[in-house]
């Protein structure tokens, strides 16, 4: 019992630090892409910015809107944060580093990431504000539409690994960069990534926040630490989806040089978690890169993309991958 | 030396790759023949990738930011920059202002307050020329309205008032600012005319 608590802390504390620095990294990278320099005043070239932000959040007043639904208003940030932290339990960080090595790991992650939409929906409902309500309605419809395509995209992964256990999915990809799932499941990987960005409400699918139309969307009435909770949940989700994508499609903690003579032995001392961190940081960077590049989708275009493009593509690839599996090509 | 030895599994990779790439290309061809070239192009995300390439390149380009308080001197300003207001004199030291009160009339923020009297030589002069710097929105309409180029905008933008009352800038203060910045004002006017 105590050990589980300690293991959980070993995941959560680095995660919270990563979240704090991700917020600064995002401002830095987007600034650099827009030929600005981003925050560079606090500490050594902006290194202490997250701490300054944290102090600001903690010391700000919690504003409670009139006629808001008290219980739900205070509960919904937690409803968003807790699932996004819980989902980390099943991620394999190396051969033996899994907090909960359960057989339905992938299903568990799927359930947890979907639960987050309750937080968004209730936040919008409870704050008694038109903008928040519109934001959460959009977010709810978006998450429901994209969950379907995401589920179909993951069917391919399950077919190839013959298992829902994340550790087994990683082992099924053993054998170097060309054995990883991204190659046989390439269309599904693209579909999955687009759905994942939409699931986490990040640009270009951030219609639930939509600064220009809805001020800040579902969390417009939240301030101080309650707002920070939403913020942490969003960024923890981003990091989680990046790690999850590397686990499903990019071999998790496996070395990319497996099966290549000499090079695989040179890199055999590198622990699995370093490979996992390296692969996931690319996807975290891709999140920021996409945010700096693409304008926001219009709401009807978003629905069109989800239902008329992503779902048919992932459905069409399932027969292909099944046939390839049947004839032993993958 | 087991790392040089190529396993059966590694040989199997080649077979797999043919199948996998074959399936990917078949899928692309199917989309091409059923839905056409434009659909395939949009599904390959070519436009999005070219967008990502642009921002990816910009990430490594030198940044254009000037760090304001540290590099304040080198900030580029237009000759039409609308900074702090000033009153000018002629070369002989006589104030330019003829108290026509056009600036007072045009000021949208009602920041200018002028009182005038007739000078001994028969000309009309101001006795009071106050600008409330809190009301002033630096729109530059007064400088535009002035028929004798008396009230002008300087390049100075770093100024603040620490005590209540300091915000009312008197005629003497404005003239002093004008004297201080006369070279700059003349240079800017020359540049603007050219």
TrEMBL record, chain A:
InterPro entries, sorted: NADH_UbQ_OxRdtase_su1/FPO, NADH_UbQ_OxRdtase_su1_CS
Subcellular location: Cell membrane; Membrane
Topology term for the membrane: Multi-pass membrane protein
Keyword Cell membrane (UniProt): yes
Entry's EC annotation: 7.1.1.-
Primary location class: membrane
GO terms, molecular function: NADH dehydrogenase (quinone) (non-electrogenic) activity
Subunit structure: NDH-1 is composed of 14 different subunits. Subunits NuoA, H, J, K, L, M, N constitute the membrane sector of the complex.
Similarity comment text for this entry: Belongs to the complex I subunit 1 family.
Described purpose of this protein according to its UniProt entry: NDH-1 shuttles electrons from NADH, via FMN and iron-sulfur (Fe-S) centers, to quinones in the respiratory chain. The immediate electron acceptor for the enzyme in this species is believed to be ubiquinone. Couples the redox reaction to proton translocation (for every two electrons transferred, four hydrogen ions are translocated across the cytoplasmic membrane), and thus conserves the redox energy in a proton gradient. This subunit may bind ubiquinone.
Protein name, as recorded: NADH-quinone oxidoreductase subunit H
Species per Swiss-Prot/TrEMBL record: Candidatus Comchoanobacter bicostacola
């Amino acid at each position: 019992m105590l050990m589980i608590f300690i293991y959980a802390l070993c995941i959560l504390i680095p995660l919270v630090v990563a979240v704090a620095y991700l917020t600064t990294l995002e401002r830095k990278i987007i600034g650099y892409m827009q030929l600005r320099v981003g925050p560079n005043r606090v500490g050594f070239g902006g290194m202490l910015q997250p701490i300054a932000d944290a102090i600001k959040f903690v010391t700000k007043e919690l504003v409670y809107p009139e006629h808001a639904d008290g219980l739900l208003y205070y509960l919904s940030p937690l409803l968003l944060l807790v699932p996004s932290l819980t989902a980390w339990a099943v991620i394999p960080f190396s051969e033996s580093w899994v907090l909960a090595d359960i057989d339905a790991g992938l299903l568990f992650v799927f359930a947890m990431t979907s639960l987050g939409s309750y937080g968004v929906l209730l936040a919008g409902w409870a704050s008694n504000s038109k903008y928040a309500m519109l934001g959460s309605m959009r977010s709810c419809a978006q998450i429901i539409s994209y969950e379907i395509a995401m589920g179909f995209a993951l069917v391919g992964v399950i077919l190839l690994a013959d298992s829902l256990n994340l550790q087994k999915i990683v082992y099924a990809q053993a054998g170097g960069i060309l054995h990883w799932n991204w190659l046989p499941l390439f269309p599904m990987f693209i579909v999955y990534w687009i759905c994942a960005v939409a699931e986490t409400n990040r640009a270009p699918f951030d219609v639930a926040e939509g600064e220009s139309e809805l001020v800040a969307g579902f969390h417009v009435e939240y301030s101080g630490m309650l707002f920070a909770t939403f913020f942490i949940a969003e960024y923890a989700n981003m990091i989680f989806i990046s790690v999850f994508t590397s686990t499903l499609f990019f071999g998790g903690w496996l070395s990319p040089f497996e099966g290549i003579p000499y090079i695989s032995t040179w890199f055999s001392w590198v622990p699995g978690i370093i490979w996992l961190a390296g692969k996931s940081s690319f996807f975290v960077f891709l999140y920021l890169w996409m945010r700096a590049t693409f304008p926001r989708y219009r709401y009807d275009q978003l629905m069109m993309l989800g239902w008329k493009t992503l779902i048919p593509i992932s459905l069409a690839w399932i027969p292909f991958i099944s046939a390839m599996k049947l004839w032993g090509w993958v | 030396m087991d790392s040089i030895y190529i396993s059966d599994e590694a040989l199997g990779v080649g077979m797999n790759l043919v199948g996998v790439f074959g399936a990917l290309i078949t899928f692309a061809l199917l989309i091409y023949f059923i839905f056409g070239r434009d659909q395939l192009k949009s599904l390959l995300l070519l436009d999005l990738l070219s967008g990502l390439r642009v921002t990816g390149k910009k990430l490594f380009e030198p940044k254009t930011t000037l760090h304001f308080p540290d590099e304040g001197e080198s900030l580029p300003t237009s000759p039409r920059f609308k900074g702090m207001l000033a009153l000018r004199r002629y070369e002989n030291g006589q104030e330019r202002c003829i108290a026509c009160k056009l600036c007072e009339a045009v000021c949208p923020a009602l920041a200018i307050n002028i009182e005038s009297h007739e000078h001994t030589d028969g000309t009309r002069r101001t006795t009071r020329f106050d600008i409330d710097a809190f009301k002033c929105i630096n729109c530059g309409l007064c400088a535009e309205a002035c028929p004798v180029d008396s009230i002008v905008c300087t390049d100075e933008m770093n100024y603040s008032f620490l005590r209540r009352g300091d915000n009312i800038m008197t005629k003497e203060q404005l003239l002093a600012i004008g004297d201080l910045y006369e070279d700059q004002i003349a240079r800017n006017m020359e540049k603007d005319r050219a």
